[in-house]
C-alpha cells in the first residue's frame, strides 16, 4: 500500500491519517475535502496534499470514507472505477445501508465496511489525534470473514491494530442491532430525560442538580446534525431498542408500587460493573 486517500478529512479521517503515520506508514496520504479543510489538514501534517475525487479513485490503494453516513452512501457509486486490488473502507456509524451500496457499486476493487468506536466532543481536523483509536473497538463488517484475508484488507487491519484499536468482525445487521442498544439507545434516553425535565424543573431545580443528572443528561448536548443520518439509517433497530427499554421501565414502575426494586437494582449494578471491568 503506497497511497491512501482520505475522503472527508475531519476528526475521524484526520485521526486515521495521523494514526497511519504513527504506525509507520511511509507512503503518500491524500485528502478529498473542502479547500479550507485541506489547508488545515496539511498544516496538521495529516495529509501530504489535496486531490480531486477523480484523482483519488484513479490512484489510491486505500480509499477511506470518513463523511456523514448518507454522504458516504452518495459517494460510493462514484468509486466504481477504483483500480483492481484497491481497498475501499468507511467509518460510518451504521453499516447496513452503506454495505448494501458497497456491494452494489464496487466490483473491481474491494469494499469493506468499518466503524471505529471512537470520537470526542470537538469536531474537525483541528481536533484530530493519532491516539484516538487506541484501546477502542474497531468494527469491520465483511460479508464473509474470508474478506479480511485479501492482501489489501490484511494490510489495513495491520495498521488499525498498530494504531491500538481492537478489530472486531461482525455482520452489518448484527452491528446495527448492537449499536442501537449500546450507543443509540443511551442517546435517546438522555435526550428524552432532558426534554422531560426541561418542562418541569425550574431555576431552583437546575441549581440543585446533582452529579447523577449531569451524567445522565450529558449525551443530550449532542447535536441533531450528528444524529440525523444515524436515525435515518437505523430507525427500525432504534425503535426496537426503545420498545425493549420502555418495557423494562414499565416493569420497574410496577415493582416500585409493589416494593420490589431490589432485583432491578442488583441486576443493573452487576451489568454496570461488568462494563467498567471489561
Brief sketch in words of this structure:
It is built from 12 helices and 8 strands. It has 278 residues and is of the alpha/beta class.
In terms of topology, how is this protein built?
Layout: E1 3-7, H1 11-22, E2 28-32, H2 35-44, E3 49-50, H3 53-59, E4 62-65, H4 69-75, E5 87-90, H5 96-105, E6 110-116, E7 137-141, H6 151-162, E8 166-169, H7 172-198, H8 203-207, H9 211-217, H10 224-233, H11 235-256, H12 262-277
Parallel strand pairs: 1-2, 1-4, 2-3, 4-5, 5-6, 7-8
Antiparallel strand pairs: 6-7
Helix pairs in contact: 4-5, 7-11
| Total number of helices | 12
Structural shape: elongated
CATH architectural arrangement of the largest domain: 3-Layer(aba) Sandwich
Unreliable parts: none
User: CATH homologous superfamily of the largest domain - what is it?
Assistant: NAD(P)-binding Rossmann-like Domain
Query: Main β-sheet: number of strands, strand sense, barrel status?
Result: 8 strands, mixed
Number of domains: 2
Rg of Cα set: 21 Å
- Biggest sheet strand order reads 3-2-1-4-5-6-7-8
Mean pLDDT: 94
Q: Span between N and C termini? A: 34 Å
CATH class of the largest domain: Alpha Beta
Features:
alpha/beta, Rossmann fold, 6-phosphogluconate dehydrogenase C-terminal fold, 2 domains, eight-stranded mixed beta sheet, 13% strand, elongated
Describe the overall structure:
With 278 residues, the chain is an alpha/beta fold. The protein has two domains: 3-170, 3-Layer(aba) Sandwich (Rossmann fold), CATH 3.40.50; 174-277, 6-phosphogluconate dehydrogenase C-terminal like domain (6-phosphogluconate dehydrogenase C-terminal fold, Orthogonal Bundle), CATH 1.10.3660.10. 52% of the residues lie in helices and 13% in strands. Helix 4 (69-75) runs parallel beside helix 5 (96-105) and helix 7 (172-198) crosses helix 11 (235-256). The longest helix is centred in the middle third of the chain and has 27 residues, at 172-198. The chain is elongated and about 65 Å long. The two termini are 34 Å apart. The mean pLDDT is 94.
